[in-house]
Design brief:
three-stranded antiparallel β-sheet, mainly alpha
Length: 157
């Protein structure tokens, strides 16, 4: 949510991709085959520092349940949490459900709310064409999105 990374990009991260000194995450082997950098926010830095125990650079950042490096069920864990919280309860339209990819949309929405240009948002998301960034969300999101985000931020005050 704080980086705009896709689940597969998270799964492929190794400690060699993390640059604490410059506050960057190097993202390679992306969906569109273009490498890019993501910024390490305070939230990401805290999480990474908790996980880093001097592992070798080739070790995956997110390991599976048994510590294996080949598979990290990050989207499965996310789906389980969404189900336990009931976030998709009563939602019948698949395109309106909360899934791991929703985090990338949230990241993009926050950038747009902050007034970042769509070109910048597009690059941070790893889109190879700005048209992917310009696509509008579904009709349900358009109607209720503004009200929901307003309530969300008001509840944080």
């Amino acid at each position: 949510m704080f980086s705009g990374l896709r689940a597969g990009e998270c799964r492929r991260l190794t400690w060699a991709d993390i640059d604490f000194e410059h506050g960057k995450i190097f993202i390679k082997d992306t969906k569109n085959r273009f490498n890019r950098n993501a910024h390490i926010t305070a939230e990401i830095r805290e999480m990474l520092l908790r996980r880093y125990q001097g592992q070798s650079k080739s070790t995956k950042v997110l390991l599976g349940l048994e510590g294996g490096e080949s598979y990290c069920p990050i989207s499965e864990h996310f789906s389980r949490a969404v189900k336990e919280l009931g976030l998709n309860q009563g939602t019948t339209e698949r395109r309106q459900t909360v899934c791991f990819h929703t985090l990338q949309h949230t990241f993009a929405s926050w950038l747009v709310i902050m007034g970042k240009p769509l070109y910048t948002v597009s690059k941070l998301l790893g889109h190879n064409n700005i048209r992917w960034t310009e696509r509008p969300p579904g009709p349900r999101s358009q109607k209720s999105g503004g009200r929901e985000i307003g309530r969300h931020f008001e509840s944080r005050q």
